[in-house]
Amino acid sequence: MSQYPRVKIVRTQKREGLIRARLLGASHANADVLTYLDSHCECTEGWLEPLLDRIARNRTTVVCPVIDVINDDTFEYHWQRASGTSVGGFDWNLQFNWHAIPERERKLHSHPSEPVATPTMAGGLFAIDRRWFEKLGSYDPAFDIWGGENLELSFKIVPCSHVGHIFRKRSPYKWRSGVNVLRRNSVRLAEVWMDEYKNYFYDRINHELGDYGDVSSRRALRQRLQCKSFKWYLDNVFPELFVPGEAAAFGEIRNLQTKLCVDSQCDSVNDMYKPVGLYTCHNLGGNQYWLMSKDGEIRRDEACLDYAGTNVTLYPCHGSRGNQFWIYNPKVMTLT
């Protein structure tokens, strides 16, 4: 890297993972703006100026580019139009996901190239004012390796360029043996920022919190920043999110004769449009945890059970009843 005199490489003493490596980099930076990019990204011409422009207008703005897809087999760059931009969200497993731009947000803009507000941000590509990042408490330094850091930052900020990103088929990280790092990070996140709504996440993991460490300093940070409640965040920033507390019932869907439960993963778009599975009931929630909405949907987050005459499949919830309308008879304990 000697041909790039302005580039400084900072190395950790041991393998620390993405989160603490980013914190180390921030501690050595002296410019006004920090820009984070995953190592598997490709920047297009003119990618940086739109990010800096928004921060120059308002230093508390945190900006993400349009994230294009780079094929992880061929490295082919798939450019997308700004009109196809999605916004970030999350589900009650505390997994980041993508959503179409809400109609309420579209009405605020006259051109698809204008930046849009997003409830959460993808963690791999963003720019932020360095002093603002520090004031917000940066990342939780007790987070391990990777996972949850983007939601933690999103919950602290109330929030147009193109950068390509390779969406890999598997995780490249080596996790500590015997420790569920993603769960530990997510529990720390929930304990600090989500108030009573944390229990919806805990329902998904059977309230098995494990040892998540001391969060008193992060709670003190939240108090010092005078952050609004998580209910305010849901009402004002992400009102589209289905809240489990609004459900008529929740739990497993069990066949009392066979002891089999409806068991299906629905964590990503790749899980949609597939027949639901059956598995021995285990009372651990997870893929056997379902909610019945007041509108008769059986759902988990944005996926609903849909029956069109053959198999019961997972389908995006549409709110129009039809194939997604279910009736529960408590007397005979049947779903139809």
Automatic annotation (TrEMBL):
One annotated GO biological process: protein O-linked glycosylation
SMART domains to which the protein is assigned, alphabetical: RICIN
EC assignment: 2.4.1.-
PROSITE patterns in the record: RICIN_B_LECTIN (PS50231)
PANTHER family xrefs: N-ACETYLGALACTOSAMINYLTRANSFERASE (PTHR11675), POLYPEPTIDE N-ACETYLGALACTOSAMINYLTRANSFERASE 9-RELATED (PTHR11675:SF131)
Names of required cofactors: Mn(2+)
InterPro entries: GalNAc-T (IPR045885), Glyco_trans_2-like (IPR001173), Nucleotide-diphossugar_trans (IPR029044), Ricin_B-like_lectins (IPR035992), Ricin_B_lectin (IPR000772)
Stored SUPFAM superfamilies: Nucleotide-diphospho-sugar transferases, Ricin B-like lectins
Start and end residues of each Ricin B lectin domain: 247-336
Alphabetized GO MF terms: carbohydrate binding; polypeptide N-acetylgalactosaminyltransferase activity
Entry keyword set: Disulfide bond, Glycosyltransferase, Golgi apparatus, Lectin, Manganese, Membrane, Signal-anchor, Transferase, Transmembrane, Transmembrane helix
Higher taxonomy: Eukaryota, Metazoa, Ecdysozoa, Arthropoda, Crustacea
Source species: Amphibalanus amphitrite (Striped barnacle)
This protein's GO CC annotations: Golgi membrane
Compartments where located: Golgi apparatus membrane
Keyword Membrane on entry: yes
Record carries keyword Transmembrane helix: yes
Gene: gly-5_0
Pathway this chain belongs to: Protein modification; protein glycosylation
Family to which this protein belongs: Belongs to the glycosyltransferase 2 family. GalNAc-T subfamily.
UniProt name for this protein: Polypeptide N-acetylgalactosaminyltransferase
Topology versus the membrane: Single-pass type II membrane protein
Superkingdom per UniProt: Eukaryota
